[in-house]
Amino acid sequence: MTPFTLPRNSIIHGDCLNAMRTLPSRGVDFILTDPPYVTRYRDRSGRQVLNDDNADWIEPAYAEMYRLLKCNSFTVSFYGWNSIDRFSAAWAKAGFRMVGHIVFRKRYASSRGYLARHHENAYLLAKGRPDMLSRRVIGDVIDMPYTGNRLHPTQKPVAALTPLIESFCPQSGIILDPFCGSGSSLVAAQQQGRDWLGIELDPNHHRIASSRLAGEMEEAA
After folding, report:
1. 149 φ, ψ to 5°?
2. Domains, in order of start, for the chain
3. How many H helices and E strands in the chain?
4. 177 phi/psi in degrees, rounded to 5
5. Alpha helices in 83-183 (DSSP H)
6. Which residue pairs from 106-110 have beta carbons closer than 8 angstroms and sit at least 24 positions apart in sequence?
7. Can you tell me the distance from the alpha carbon of 200 to that of 209, in angstroms, rounded to the nearest whole number?
8. SS3 67
9. Which of 66, 93, 107, 184 sits at a 20 to 30 Å CA gap from 77?
10. How far apart are the first and last CA of the chain?
């Protein structure tokens, strides 16, 4: 398909691979995303995440993200620790460099196995050589308040995403989240005065995110 002009402040409903392939190259200033972890996750109420049962999307999705991102810019991607080999291979093949690792510290255990899991992880990925001097440097441990997962089975708190946007996206920039879920990353972008573009496959989560962002935009008007 022929790419069209990059839409701003909207959420596309559909498969992110199909959607990203229609977008113009090097039009995004920052990517912040929490993709499926490939763990077949199911929460206590039985809710699941679409495409969490296969890894087929990982390599082509990050290849598209790399194409869409401007040169000398950043991506922050959450990942599943038990699938890091798949994620890191896809990042490297796409052209990303891993330039930092972020731990999101929880005061509660989200699950228990051999260990009680009190944190989540994300990698800071670079395309090219971003300037290290023109932005606010943040720490690599960020507190993650509990959201209650009311809107999504793996809902991230806006407060934990805000410093990432402040540090890694220019004030006039646009943020892309190809797996936007309930829209927390987009809410954080809206609250920080950045433009945003989300993509979500699940129709229910797309409705939730769209309603949530409409409310944020109405408040800002």
Report:
1. 50, 40
2. 10-220 (3.40.50.150)
3. 6, 8
4. -130, 105
5. 84-94, 158-168
6. 106/144, 106/146, 107/143, 107/146, 108/146
7. 9
8. helix
9. 107
10. 35
How far apart CA 123 and CA 150 sit, in angstroms, is: 26
Taking the C-alpha atoms of residue 128 and residue 136, their distance in angstroms, rounded to an integer, is 19
Alpha carbons 98 and 192: distance in angstroms, whole number: 25
Does the pTM surpass 0.90? The reply is yes
Which has more pLDDT, 110 or 157? Answer: 157
Beta-sheet pairing, 28-33 with 174-177: parallel
pLDDT digits (tens, 9 = 90+) for 112-124: 889 998 999 999 9
Residues 6+ apart with CB under 8 A from 43: 149, 153
* Per-residue model confidence as pLDDT tens digits over 143-193: 999 998 898 998 999 999 999 999 999 999 999 999 999 999 999 999 999
